[in-house]
Each structure stands twice: as structure tokens, then as C-alpha cells.
Amino acid sequence: MPDTLELLNAALGGIIDPSREKTLGETGAIRHLGIDPETSTVKMLIEVGVKAPEFTQKITRAAAKIVKLDHGYKSLVIEYEEKPSYRPITNRHVVGIASGKGGVGKSSVTANLAYALTSIGKKVGVIDADVYGANLPIIFGIDGTAIGGTEDGKIYPVKKDGIEVVSAAFLMEPDKALMWRGPMLTKILKIFFEDTLWDPKLDYLLIDLPPGTGDVAMDIKTFAPDAKMVIVTTPHESASAVAIKAGYAARQLGQDLLGVIENMAYYETAGTRHYIFGKDGGKAVAIKLGIPVIGEIPISQPQSGHHSVFADTEENGLIYLAIARRIIRSFDL
Ligand SMILES: Nc1ncnc2c1ncn2[C@@H]1O[C@H](COP(=O)(O)OP(=O)(O)OP(=O)(O)O)[C@@H](O)[C@H]1O
Ligand SMILES: [Mg+2]
């Protein structure tokens, strides 16, 4: 027969530490568990990933239910100790999503690729480095105020559907405006590469880059010399001409170009394709840069109700899965 302490330990072990997305049992986080029968008090020492009220309150509530309601003790005292299970990332593949021109679908592509890679079983992190147009929190449905940090100035990515996300938008409180003097992208990338506590098991880190060419490539080179780039364009020449420049800038710095994604390639209705934004912009970029077109994404809205991310079952979702597999293969080569 297990004794009371064992039963209690087993029940408490099932509580999830939301900062680690793992149970206390899995991480061996219950460092001490004791019962004072005289005062009917249970005392615990719990190790957590992040010692912040938004996480610890949830654990306390769940533990109180078990200790007081299920086991009938009068009170519960919990001490929390922070032990981040994270360290800076090292073994990850970095993919920069660049376009040259704005509004061609970089952020949509980044988010959809993150979901596609995740559904293939990869652990994915996403950096929204678009300083002035940061909108990945909206696409992911993330409230940036939830971002946590440590006393020594490190930040934790926000988790959504298993994907870790950081965004320039999280760092944009008006009272921090001063720290943004100077080249913004350099500073943002420094924080996201050097001061962010990513899951060390990250397989892929996707970067949604701001529009632009030369500087963007240079910054990526500084922080992720081994990054490979995906170039996004629409079929229209106004986008493809700038995408070619972005590609040349990357190439000059010795960056690998994974390929071109032609977004908003056509609109299909009743089996007929309408080339609303023109044709072959993706091909033009591919030929000029000597790289493959790795995907053509039609104009379409997700059926799932999500405003940018397609389900695996939708046509665009399947296209993104195919692109994700291609990206994985190109790193395995
Ligand atoms: N294949 C598509 N079909 C329909 N709408 C799309 C498609 N791709 C993107 N969009 C829409 O086009 C708009 C611009 O897309 P997105 O924000 O991804 O572009 P971006 O390149 O990141 O833009 P920015 O340069 O402003 O950051 C969004 O409203 C998005 O929902
Ligand atoms: Mg964008």
C-alpha cells in the first residue's frame, strides 16, 4: 500500500508547470514534500522554469485542490525556486524569410511554415524581426504582454501551439523607445539571438525579416552566419525585381538561398486559374538567382477560421507541408 506521502506526491506530480509545458513529475520539480500533522499543513518546495505569478499561481491553485479538497489538509505552503530548463540555442537550423518588397506574404509564409514544420515533428522557433511591421503576434494570436524575462535581462519566447515566438512588437513599449536609437534590426536580432532563452532542442528557427535588401542580409550574417534564405515574391514584376536584389545581396555575403516561394500565384475558381497579379514572378527570380521555385501558393483564405494559417487538410496547407519537407531535405544534404 502506498503511504499518504507517496499518493500525494503522485497526484502533485501530475500538475503542469506552464513555464516548461511539462508536469512536475516529468521534470522532477518537487524538491521537497512534507506533512506537518499537528497543523495539518503540507509544505512543498517546487522548482519552476520561470518564477513569475502567471505561472506559479496556476501551480498553486492546482496543488491546493489536491492537498485541501482531495486529501483534506487544512493548509498548503509552497516555496518556488527558479531553475530555467533553457539555455541559448546552438544546434538549430536558421531560415530567413526575405522578400525585398513589403506586403508580399513573408509573415504568412513564416507562420505557415512554422506550423508545417511542427506538424512534421520539428521543434520550431520564430523570430518576428520586422521592426516597424511586426504582426506575427496577431497572426499567431499571441498577447505580447505575456512575455517573461529573468533578472539578468534574458527573455523567454512565448509558446503557441508548441511553437516558440518572439516579436519586435513585444519590445516596443513606449517607455523603452530610447534603446532603439541606431540600427534597429541589429539590436532586435542581438536580443533574439543572444538574450533569448530558446528551448535548447529547437530544430528550426525561422526569421520573418523586414522588407529591404543589403542591410537585412548583413544583419543575418552577423548573428546567424549559417542561415539559409527563402525569398518570397508575388508574380508581379514590382515584387520580383526587388526580390532579385535581396537575393543578390544575400549571395554576396555567401548565404545559401534555399529557393523562391511565389505567393498569391493565382486565384483558382471552378478549376480555372486566374493570374490576378501577373505570372512567373517566382520563375524570374529563380532563373536570375539560379535557385529553384520551392512553392507556388494560390490566393486563398484559410477555411479553419484562422486568418492566416491553413490547416493540413486545405490545399494551401498541403503546399506548405511540401515546402517544409523540401526545406528539411535541403538541411539534411
Ligand atoms: N496566399 C495568400 N492569399 C490571400 N491572402 C494572402 C496570401 N498571402 C498573404 N495574404 C494576405 O496579404 C496580406 C500581406 O501578407 P503578409 O502580412 O504575410 O505580408 P508581409 O510580406 O509579411 O507584409 P509586410 O511587408 O507588411 O510585413 C495579409 O493580409 C495576408 O493575410
Ligand atoms: Mg510581415
Provide key terms for this protein:
333 residues, alpha/beta, GMP Synthetase, Chain A, domain 3, Rossmann fold, 2 domains, 10 helices, 35% helix
Helix/strand layout:
Blueprint: H1 4-13, E1 16-17, E2 22-23, H2 24-27, E3 30-36, E4 41-48, H3 53-70, E5 75-82, E6 93-98, H4 106-119, E7 124-128, H5 136-140, E8 158-160, E9 163-167, H6 184-194, E10 204-208, H7 214-223, E11 228-233, H8 237-252, E12 256-263, E13 267-269, E14 272-274, H9 281-289, E15 293-297, H10 315-332
Parallel strand pairs: 4-5, 6-10, 6-11, 7-9, 7-10, 11-12, 12-15
Antiparallel strand pairs: 1-2, 3-4, 8-9, 13-14
Bound molecules: adenosine-5'-triphosphate and magnesium ion.
Magnesium ion binds at residues 106-107, 130, 133, 135, 208.
Account of the protein in words:
With 333 residues, the chain is of the alpha/beta class. It folds into 2 domains: 4-82, Fe-S cluster assembly (FSCA) (GMP Synthetase, Chain A, domain 3, 2-Layer Sandwich), CATH 3.30.300.130; 93-332, P-loop containing nucleotide triphosphate hydrolases (Rossmann fold). It has 10 helices and 15 strands. It has an 8-stranded mixed beta sheet, with helices on both faces. The protein has a 3-stranded mixed beta sheet with strand order 3-4-5. It has a two-stranded antiparallel ribbon with strand order 1-2. The chain binds adenosine-5'-triphosphate and magnesium ion. The site of magnesium ion has 6 residues, from helix 4.
